[in-house]
Amino acid sequence: MRPRPWTAKPLSYTWGSSKEETHRITVDNGIAYPVAENLHLALHQLQHPSRQRVLWVDRICINQREVRERNYQVAQMRAIYEGARLVIVWLGVEDRTSAVITASVERLGMRIVEAGLKRVSIPMMASKFEWAKELLPVMQSSLGEMEVDSPWTAGMVAFLNRPWWSWIWVWQEPAMARRAEFICGPLILD
């Protein structure tokens, strides 16, 4: 049984190329927190112009200096992601590959629907293997139709080369959620 959903949206992200905390952000309580470049870019991009967005960000919500609190909070992360109605996955800023990535992922999504797979969202960890077994032939047939140097293939490669995919431990974050949005600059993949 899943816990009741809560309103904060956990942010799944990576530190990025630099762990150096060169930026500061100020949250509602007036406290300024040092953050690395990638988190700063994510928070800036995710600001809504007209309404408040409540995010749960481990770097801010977990006191990294208090070992006991940090260990307690890390133990709660499964409940946080499972209880979320939506997990936001930050893939990074928009670049020259973003439009191709969006078109490629949308095309793959259409292929998944055409193949009759009922589950298009990221699966729960327990069912990931079964879902992947069903998805693999769809991906193979889509890739088989494409030239190796096609824009579609280039888009998928660019998508999977984003730093978020290289950190295996973050994959579980959207997998535990009811729903996940993958954000690449202004582009949203749902």
Structure description:
The chain is α/β, with parallel strands linked by helices. Residues 119-129 have low confidence and may be disordered. It is 42% helix and 15% strand. Strand 2 and strand 3 form a beta hairpin. It has 2 domains: 9-93 and 163-189, no CATH class; 98-159, no CATH class. Helix 4 crosses helix 6 (151-160). The chain starts with 8 loop residues before the first strand and ends with a strand. The longest helix is centred in the middle third of the chain and has 17 residues, at 67-83. It contains 7 helices and 7 strands; from the N terminus they run E-E-E-H-E-H-H-E-H-H-H-H-E-E. Strands 4-1-5-6-7 form a 5-stranded mixed sheet.
List the SSEs and their pairings.
Blueprint lengths: L8 E4 L10 E4 L5 E4 L1 H10 L8 E2 L1 H4 L5 H17 L3 E6 L5 H17 L13 H17 L6 H10 L11 H5 L3 E5 L2 E3 L1
Helix pairs in contact: 4-6
Cα radius of gyration in angstroms:
18 Å
* Contiguous helical run count: 7
| Total E-strand runs | 7
Name the strands of the widest sheet in spatial order. Answer: 4-1-5-6-7
N-to-C order of helices and strands: EEEHEHHEHHHHEE
- Overall number of structural domains: 2
Please mark out the parts with pLDDT under 50 across 5 or more consecutive residues, or reply none: 119-129
Share of helix, binned: 40-55%
Rounded mean pLDDT score: 76
Measure the end-to-end span. 24 Å
Strand content: 5-15%
Oligomerization state: single chain
- What would you call the shape? globular
Structural class: alpha/beta
The largest sheet is: 5 strands, mixed
